[in-house]
Every structure is written in C-alpha cells, then in structure tokens.
Amino acid sequence: MIFSDLMSFLIILLYGLGAFGSLAGIRPGKEGLRRLAALLTLAGFCLHTLLILVLLLTQNMEDLGRGCLLQLMSWCVLLVYIAGWRFLKLSFLAFSAAPLALILYVAALGAGDAQVVLPSRFSGLFFLLHIGAFFFSYAFLAAGSGAALLFLHMEHKLKNRLAFSEFDRELPAIATFDTVNRLAVTIGFPLFTLGLVSGFAWARGVWGSTVSFDPKEILSFIIWFAYAVLFHQRLAVGWRGRKTAWMLLFVFALSLASIGINFFTDSHHRFF
Amino acid sequence: MHQLYLIGLNHRTADLAIRERFALAGRECGACSPLAPQGAIVESLWLSTCNRVEVLVCGPGEETWRQAQEAWAGICGAHACELESHLYSYCGEDAVRHVLRVASSLDSLVLGEPQILGQLKDAYRRAVDDNTVKLILGRLLHKAFMTAKRVRSETALASAAVSISYAAVALARRIFDSLSGKQVLLIGAGEMAELAAAHLCEGQGALLAVTNRTFERAFALAERFKAKPLEFEQLQEHLEQADIVISSTGAPEPIISREMMRAVMKKRKNKPVFIIDIAVPRDVEESVGKLDNVYLYAIDDLSAVVEENRAARRDEAVKAEAIVEEECIRFCQWLRSLSLQPAIADLVCRAERIAEEELARTLRRIGPVSDEMRSALEAMLGGVIKKLNHAPISYLKRRFNEGEEAGLAAVGTLRRVFNLDGEELSSTPHPGRKRS
Q1: pLDDT digits (tens, 9 = 90+) for A200-215
Q2: Which of B160, B176, B293 is nearest residue A173 as measured by Cβ atoms?
Q3: Which of A45, A263, B301, B353 could pair covalently with B297 via S-S, beta carbons 3.0-4.6 A apart?
C-alpha cells in the first residue's frame, strides 16, 4: 500500500510538472521547457506502467476496482498519445498528453475510493480482450477528438481569414489533424467492434444470452452505429475535414456518456 | 582603451543613387580590404547591402572614425564632406546597440526580414579572411549573431509573412502537411501570381502546371517555370488534380463557379484545395470559399493577412528591443572590463615575482629538496597567489560594473596600494605631514 501511495505521489508530481511545463512551453522559443516537460511526462508514464504491472501481477482480477480500471484506461489513452507523438511526429499531442494524463490519473484515484469489487466471472484473458479493445478504442477517440477540436479551431480561422495567435502558430497544418482523425476512425472503429463482439460472445458463454439490454449495452449499440457511419463515410465516400471532425466529437461524447452511465445505473457493467 | 565607432547610411538617410555611389561591395582591390586597419584604425568591418552601407571601426579616439570616413569616401572617388550629410554615426554603447539591432533585423526596411543576418555573417567572414577583425569586433559580431538567434527564437518577430507571395506560401503550410508533391495550378499570368507560384515551388517540391486562354502564352510561361502547359478548355479536369490554384486572369466574369467547384471536390474525394484569387475582378465566385475543404483567399484577404502580420511584427519588436538592450549591457560590461586587464596582469605578475623570489630564498636556506617537494611548494604558492588576488580583482570588477568612472578610480587606488607602477617610495608614508 505504501509502495502504491508513493508511486501515485510521484506519478502525480511528474504529470503535474509535465503539464505545467508543456502548457507554459506553448509560447515560441520555449523548446527547452517543452523538451523537459516531455521528459517528465515520459518518466511519469514509465512509473505509471510499472504501477499497473505491479497491480496486475499482485492482485486478483476480481479485486480490481473501478479506480484501477480507470487507471488502466488513462494508461491506454496516454500510450496512444505518446505513440502518436513519438512515432508519427505529431508534436501537438505532446502538450496535451501531460494535462490529460494528470486529469485522468487524479480521476482514477478519486474513483478508486468508491471501490466496486469486480465479479469473479469477469476475470480472465478474454475479459482483458473485451476491456482492452474498448479502452484502446476510447484512447483513439480521445486523441482524434483533440485533433478534431483543433481542426475546427484552425479551419474557422482559415475560412474567416482571422489572425493567428502565438498558440496557433505553434500548431501543425490542418491536414495533420485530419490524419489523426483518419487514424482514430480506421483503428478505433475495428477495436470498438472487437470489444463489442468479444463482450457479446463471452456473455453468451457465461450467461447464455448475448444481449441483456442494460443501458450501457444500448448506448454501445448507438455508438457503434454512429462510428460505423463515420467509418463508412470516411473510407468509402471520402468524407474529410469539418464533417468528420464534428462526427468524431459526437461519437466521443457518446463514449464519455457510456462511461459515465455506469456510475448512475445498476447493471452488470456497474464495476466500470 | 579602444573605442567602437560606426558610420553608415541606409534607406532612411540616403536615396538609392547615393547608396549606389557609396556602396562598398565590389570595390575590393585584390586581396586588400577597402578599409584595412592602418593609422588610427585598429580593427574594421564593412557591410554593404542594397539598403545600407556601414563601416564599423575600433580605435583609440575620434580620429579613428574620421580616418574611416575619409578612407570610405576615397574608395568611392568622393570627398568626405560629400558623404557626411548622408551619414549617421554612433560611438561606444550606441554603436554596439546599433550593430545588435541591425543583426536582429530591427533596423531593416521590412522588420524581421532574415537576409540581413546572412549579409552580416558574410561581412564578418570577409573581415576574418582579410584579418581586419580582432578581439573586440570579433566578440561584438558573435554577440550580434547570438542576439539575432535569441530574438528569432524568443519572439515572433520573423514568424509571420509580410509579402503577398510569402503570405500565400505560409497559408499553404497551414493547410497542407508538406508542399512536396502538391500540384500547383497557375491560371493566367501576372507578376504577383507568378511570384507566388515561384515561391510555392521553389525548394518546396511542389509541381507546377500552367493554363491560359491562349495556349501559346501558357506554353511560354510553362517553359519559363519548367512547368506543364495545359489547355484552358479542360479547366475543370485540371482543377481536379490541383491542390493549390493561383488564378490571375483578366476575365470580366468568374471562371470558377460554386457548382464547378462542388463537382471538382466530389471528384477529388474532398481532398483540401487552396485557391488564391489574385485577379481583379475576381476569377472565383466568393461562395466557393463556403464549400468544405476549400480555402479561398482573394487579393484583399492576402493584403489583410500581410498587414496584420506587419502589426504583429511591430508588437514583437518591443520584446526584441528588450533582448537587444540586455545583450548590449552585457557586451558593454565586457568591453569596460577590458581596461582592467593591464592592472590585473600587473597585479598577478607582481605576486608571482614575489613568490618566485621568496621560494628561491627559502630553497637556498633549507638546501636541496626533491622534485616532488619543489612542485608541492610551487603549487602551494600558486594557491596563495590566487586566493590573495581574488579579493582585489573581484573588487575591481564590481566597481567597473557600477560605472566606468568608479572603475578607473578603483584601478588607480589598486595601482597605488600595490605599487604596480614601481614608484620610489619614501621611508615615511606622508613626508609633508608633521608628527604630533
């Protein structure tokens, strides 16, 4: 317990310093500060990874509470952000990664107090596939939504010939935001589908019925349908830009609602 | 102590004809610099661009810049008084500030333009080759380059485009990840459109195609830009391929309608397109800009962007001036500290001489010692000298940072206290004073 408390303190400290540095480093000529903030965020992420590994290895699946699962989700979101930033050179993700990490981590700690014990029948690798696929699809949606917001902001400025602020000048071209949107749709939608299908298949195996029509399942159907429309329009019809940005934001808002709904309704998804 | 002097003329003090007459570029006589150090000129450097000609010299007094002015006028086949009415001159700290401002492009016709720094670097390189810069000018120029770098990285002075053609390139960069491989379609001709097209393709890897109502004109333009000539009749098909369109025809009615562009976007699968309409009257219907993924800028929009950028640069110039001032103070502190060097050198020499004498006397008294022992004694004496000298040297530097007058007074006191000038000292400290 002391180990996890100490680790949590260090992680919050590193994410906090990273968030402060990355936001203060938005101004031009602060490359050094930005680099330092990125290093602090990466260090926080390494500790976060270590903490999750320790939790997964030392605790039973049944004992994983809502806080731990939220922590796992925040880790997935960060992994996608850091991968996009490091490997696709999407540097704009760097300044949003640390603040997002801080918010999600603190939220995970807050939810951790409201410990809801995971039913034993939910344990197992298959469950991790269901949860993991959903968490990563949420992570892609989060990154895509951030890019969609910035796309709409820059598109508004370009279309209305407004002056660019110092913050705007540091941002990449709007085509880059559209690329992130495309990745969020082309990778996120199959992951979401995998999460949904694996959940149904597993529910059939355990309870004998594929669908129980709890509120989260109904909302997940709606999200999947909206996501599928976006996937189709983007890949087959060739939608780009503003329409896809708004649509992705809509899907992300529904996903947030589907996470939030667990806290208010009584269903077999109440553990998360 | 040597002083810095700068004399020059620029776009504000002299018109083009005068600047041409007194230009120094191209007047090098073989391996000899036009203003080689001689007489009162100890160090020199000249900068000659289309907007300014400046001579920076370092020497003992006012005769330095007078000699530089005469040499400059002489090289240009004129008399010094002809030059004088167009000149501005700076001395000491003002000269340092001016050099830093010029390097940071705060004194340029177009605020924040990048060429001046390159020109100053060329001037420095030439002066180094000619061996006309030494300690002071060398250090000043390095300080100027460093200040320009700080201004560039810490302010947005040079970040916004201030010409129509560069504004078009900057906007294209806001829309596309990279301009490499992007198809630029130039419709019609015109100086500004051709300039914008040239800037878009120059070093960016964009591919240019040209179309015109008369194919011969398109062909001639294409040859000039090494581009592909296209038939004007198939404009819609060409638009489907183009990522950036620059239109500048003399057509009385728009040649690109909303319906045409809607069909084009469908064919392009909504790939973004940037249209620059430089024509007056407009070549592209205004409503085309309302279509998704179409970014339409007319000549007035680009002019407004340029004007906003100019205003932004003026705001940034205030920050840049503060950086220049900070670096100017630092350089002047260093420059002032140079006059400390003889006093410090004398102080250290005196201490070393005394230490050597005392060491020799001690060795004579104690007899032969091993090499290790001798080295240890020398190291100990070296340490004692350093520690004893530290306090007076720090005191001198502190007084110099307070002001030149206080610094010079401190040097005088130090020289008297340590008798650095080797004066004969009487046995009584105040021979004229009566003993009580």
Answers
A1: 887 777 777 777 777 8
A2: B176
A3: B301
- Tokens at residue A250, please? 């809509």
B132 and B177: one domain?
no
Question: Where among B306, B327, B359 does a domain terminate?
Answer: B306
Q: Do the chains contact at A169 and B154, CB–CB below 8 Å?
A: no
In a domain, B316, yes or no: no
3-state SS, one letter per residue, for A142-202: HHHHHHHHHHHHHHHHHHCCCCCCHHHHCCCCHHHHHHHHHHHHHHHHHHHHHHHHHHHHH
Considering only residues 6 to 45 of chain A, which have any Cβ-Cβ distance to chain B shorter than 8 Å? 28-29, 31
Express each pLDDT in B127-138 by its tens digit: 998 889 988 999
Give the structural domain span for B40: 3-154
Count: domains in chain B: 3
Q: Of the residues B86, B121, B154, which one is the last residue of a structural domain?
A: B154
Q: Across the interface, do B177 and A176 touch by the CB < 8 Å criterion?
A: yes
Which of left, alpha, beta for B26 (phi over 0: left; psi -120 to 50: alpha)? Answer: left
Instruction: Show which residues on chain B lie within 8 Å of chain A, measured between beta carbons.
Output: 153-156, 159-160, 171, 173-177, 269-272, 289, 292-293, 295, 297, 301, 304-305, 308, 312
Tokens of A8: 């949590």
Q: Which pTM was predicted?
A: 0.65
Query: Which residue of B159, B293, B297 is in closest CB contact with A28?
Result: B159
Q: What is the ipTM of this complex?
A: 0.80
- Residue of chain A whose Cα is closest to the Cα of B306: A163
